[in-house]
Amino acid sequence: MLAANRPFSFVLFGASGHLAKIKIFPALYFLALKKRLPAHYSIVGYARTGMTDEQFRQHVADAVKEYVLEVNDKVLSSMLEHVFYQQGQYDAVADFTKLATKLEALEGATKDVVRLAYLSIPPSAFESTLRNICQGGVNEEHHDFRCIVEKPVGHDLSSFEEINTVLQSCFKPHEVYILDHYLGKEAVRNAYYLRHANPVIERLLKNTLISSVQITASESAGLEGRAGYFDAVGTLRDMFQSHLIQIAALLTMRLVSDTNDIKMTRLDAVKKFYLPPATDFSEIVMQGQYGEGLVGGKKVVAYKDEDGVAPGSRTPTFAAMHLMSRSSRWEGVPFFLHSGKRLNVKETRIAIEFQESPTLVGKESNRNRLDIILQGEAGLKLYLQTKLGGSEPKFRPLVMEDPLVCMGDCLVEHSLLLLEAINGNQQWFLDAEEVRSCWRIIDPVQKYLDNKKTPLPIYLSGSKGPTEADAFIAKFGHAWL
Ligand code: BG6
């Protein structure tokens, strides 16, 4: 059973923000509930808002009660005894020195404490925070240190390089943990491990048999109070730049027997993705923005009318994109990625469509297909065909399916990744070169989307997305599955 293997101090920069509330505090609570935390640990919130330790504890307790279904009050209050707060600006080194002093005091004589800094802050505060962590002595030499930053790092390749230069000047490579929470999802990791455990599946995954791969991340949720972040970022950077490309990499990467090789082998697979040759970017990508509509029976407003969205915003909330892989096994197979907010369903899915059966089976028949459903009603579905009665060789669909439910030592993604970071396991965190490779794919496409002349169709909230997405994929002789 995975548990923190040493005492730690966890500093959460951006402690009064949204991510902290919905993901980080609940993740820490789960670790406390499941008894994965050591005897000595401190959680220190850092933000600009003025708060006492007591007020911050109340803030953490409220978040846990709001975002966790059933809360064990005893576990929560004993976790809160480890929670502290330090008010500070992100650009004032003196505030970071105070933070370092506070950490020293909390750690006291405890030996072998690992310090973790988790940056849950707006991209504009990244650089100064990183510099001040170093200059203020938060990562003092006698401590092991981890700096955790969430994707997307930067808003394009050059801003990533700027942040990465600061990261490299402050920290050693083994101290940097770039987090994509999809890589902490058991179901997403399973996209790789299913291949490992089932040679039958693995043998099917090659270009001589496959007609296309579709990776879909459909969300019914809208902005969830994050307009300030999302309006400046858009769907391509938010979902494709890391989550969807990572899923594609887990499907195509070489299988390795040593779990210490996962990160570098995944990086190889990421580097092999490229934008297919095209005469125009409209053959590679299309976008959309949600209008008003009904989601789960409730009326919802159009993106442009959401609180915090800039007037006349052209930020896409939907995109579809075509990618290819240079891996010899996957050469020639189109990868169609698509994702959007305010769609009809919450589902993340890999759909692998096989080539047509060349013989007996008539034109009206369906192709074989394998769906690996990672979120939503998670499951594995194999679409086959079986003969209908009669003297003619006619067929009907046969679907073999089983739910994919995590059993055993299941932790939610941020809990799992936090434990791995404490224990010094970087395999499911991103390598800088991986992030760089993703930006190289996304940058030219984003530039095309940013052009005011690029169409931005409006789709009905609660629908499957813009009808233009159907026309986009139809040009390649495919349809969304
Ligand atoms: C985040 C994005 O990385 O992933 C959000 O910033 C998106 O916009 C979220 O909603 C989806 O994550 P999950 O875990 O709900 O599939």
Description:
The protein is α/β, with parallel strands linked by helices and 481 residues long. It has two domains: 8-150, 3-Layer(aba) Sandwich (Rossmann fold); 185-410 and 432-474, Dihydrodipicolinate Reductase, domain 2 (2-Layer Sandwich). Helix content is 35%, strand content 23%. The chain has 13 helices and 17 strands. It has helices at residues 18-33, 53-67, 73-80, 93-107, 126-135, 157-170, 186-197, 199-204, 227-252, 262-271, 413-422, 432-450, 467-474; strands spanning 8-13, 41-47, 83-87, 114-119, 144-150, 176-179, 210-218, 273-274, 285-295, 298-300, 318-325, 335-340, 347-354, 369-375, 379-387, 395-403, 458-461. Strands 7, 8, 9, 10, 11, 12, 13, 14, 15, 16 and 17 form an eleven-stranded mixed sheet that branches. Strand 1, helix 1 (18-33) and strand 2 (41-47) form a beta-alpha-beta unit. Helix 9 (227-252) crosses helix 10 (262-271). It is globular and about 80 Å long. The mean pLDDT is 95. It binds 6-O-phosphono-beta-D-glucopyranose (BG6). The site of 6-O-phosphono-beta-D-glucopyranose has 3 residues, from loops. 6-O-phosphono-beta-D-glucopyranose (BG6) binds next to loops.
